[in-house]
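Possible regression after last week's pipeline update?

I re-ran a chain I had predicted before the update to compare outputs. Posting the input and the new output here so someone can diff against the archived version. Not blocking, just want to make sure nothing changed silently.
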Amino acid sequence: MATADDGTGHWFGADGQVSQLRGTLFKLSCLGATLLALGLVFVFLLYVFNDAVRPASADTGWLLMVVGTTVLPAVALAGYYYRRGTTAGEVAYTAFGLPIVTTLLAGGVLIVFRHIVTAHEWLAFVVAAAIAYAVVALHRRVRGNSATALERAAIVVLAPVLAIIGVPGFNVDRSIHTPLLGQELFNLSVSVPTLVPSLRGLILAQPVLPIAPVSLLLAFTIPITAAAAWHVRRVRERDRDAAIAGGATVTVAGLGLIAAPLVGLSATAWVVMTTVVGVPVGLYVESVFRRREGVTGLAFPVVIAFGAALAFVGVETLGFTGPNLWLDWSFLMNGHNTTPREAGIYPALVGSVMMLVVVAVAAFPIGVGAAVYLEEYAPSQGRLSSIVELIEINIANLAGVPSVVYGVLGLALFVRGIGMQSGIVVVGGLTIALLILPIVIVSAQEAIRGVPDSMRQASYGMGATKWQTVRNVVLPKAMPGILTGTILALGRAIGETAPLLMIGAAAVVRVPPNTFFSLFSAMPRQIYSWSRLIDADFRYGVLAAGVVTLLVVLLMLNGTAIVLRNKYQRQE
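New output (post-update):
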């Protein structure tokens, strides 16, 4: 038996048994630290939520009605799922959260179609993509294997370019509008032939041009519905089910042209909501019934929705007054105002979405490309390997540089170096892209490194080239991990304030930006400006509503990353 003289006696007690005291203390310390951190975060969220919603300002009857019809049934059902079956619980929480997340995503899509690209421009883009795909497919069919690699690359690059910029069009002379069912379904124009240097001009100047909802139905709903129908056909192996699913979705979306005003929505909002919310929710419900696991979990959102409807009817009937909210629909749709009750976050919300588009477009391709080179193509031996190792060390170090340094870099590079205007969307997006680029590269490297080397060797053994192996084996396998890291990086990007201060993002913008070269403000910048106002309603109520809005967006991004990670882990 070991003694204290050989340095191991402290592991044993007086009776010669192994002592577990230190391990128990360490475990309890870790548990305590975790509970303390979670408790502090919960208290902070509760404090902010209380300031934004102010539940104490509601009538007691209103609170009892909501708790009795919605909260208590939801808690009871959650306890039942916890005790009876984990599968039903997972289905319940997913079925409850998916409509919420997709509704928020639909709001983002509406912002894109309202401020970034119009419905007609999107229709032009889809037509251009279809033409480009047809050109590439026709070339592949005609030339086949006899085409050289340079020829195929030229076709792939030039086809979309020619489709977008080299199409003759028409110049609108005057318009004749035809009302149908209270709406204009088509814009009938008398046109004079001319040469327009873009497909956008061709689409926008057609003699018969669909209105925005119809354009979205053709170019947004139908492609997404076709992809969903193809998925249903693949998993169920029945053409009839796919046709029914696709036809039902398009029919419901099309009914919005008539039914949307009856429920207080615009036709464009109906089409987007039906597509973005209805398709994912429908696919998930179909998968639950197909697997026949946890079907009872689908009752959870139904119970909550029924309880909320019952509470609404009861409150309206009995005349109870609800809480005096700061976070309401008007706050989300209004711009800044000197009166706290009329102030809103909509321009800053649009600015954050547009900035996030620039960040994703700038950081994702460069970051993934750099990770692919460093992991798959960079030399591992010789003098160049030392340079590659130095680059990787610097990339890892750049991930920990304070964000204000990137703000100074963006100011020096894009504003003073290139000469771009300070405070515009592009400058803010490119600056934040520099901030998250090291994070994207490192996370993509880890995902690529996690692909088993045996899969690469099997691809090489079948005669595939290096590029074919990377494209067809490595990237598809690593893509869930790459997307997870990128989404988490975007979550950090949307919450940064210091770089926006350095590049001159406006403290207050009353009108949302309409182009990527417009002045903008982002949600964290707007919240920071509210915190410096003297009025207590701004520093507490309006600010708390802005913080909750920002937290909801961050939680949605992080939740998406978690879902992707869990799905990827289940597939392994």
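Follow-up from reviewer: compared with the archived run. The two ends are 45 Å apart (CA to CA). Marking as no regression found.
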